[in-house]
User: Fold this.
Amino acid sequence: MEQKRNFREPRAKAYDSEVINISRVTKVTKGGRNFRFSAVVAVGDRKGNVGLATGKANEVPDAIKKAESLAAKSMVKISLVENRTIPHDATGVAGGSKVLIKPAKRGTGVKAGGPVRAVLELAGVKDILSKSLGSNTKINIAKATLEALKSQRTIEEIAKLRGKSVEEI
Assistant:
């Protein structure tokens, strides 16, 4: 017989998450200033799925929780080669930020810093080189990294799009 799940008990987390940025935002009204918190969170399963989202709430933990649930809903699958690196070079752009990512040899590790490292590690990339160009806004750098990862295509995917075999390419 099936066991019923108690919905009051928290579920086991299916994804790892990392807080990229927390900032205090202010809304000035006639009655004064209203302070809230904005959190940018990346989630991933370290197997090729990664998501990014922002959440706003009156308290920091609530903002983080909201961002985590939104990021889990907006996860994307990325292409990995040998479950460790990306198929080719790519540049992602978001706002004034640009992120360049390049595949690397086995054993190189994740050569990236800050938000780029967080997104790449949660995506499951183990060997990669990166360079962030332009603006250093954390949310835009994270978004640019995600854009660069989304643009990745394996040889098999390209061959299928062109209607050819892998050997022809």
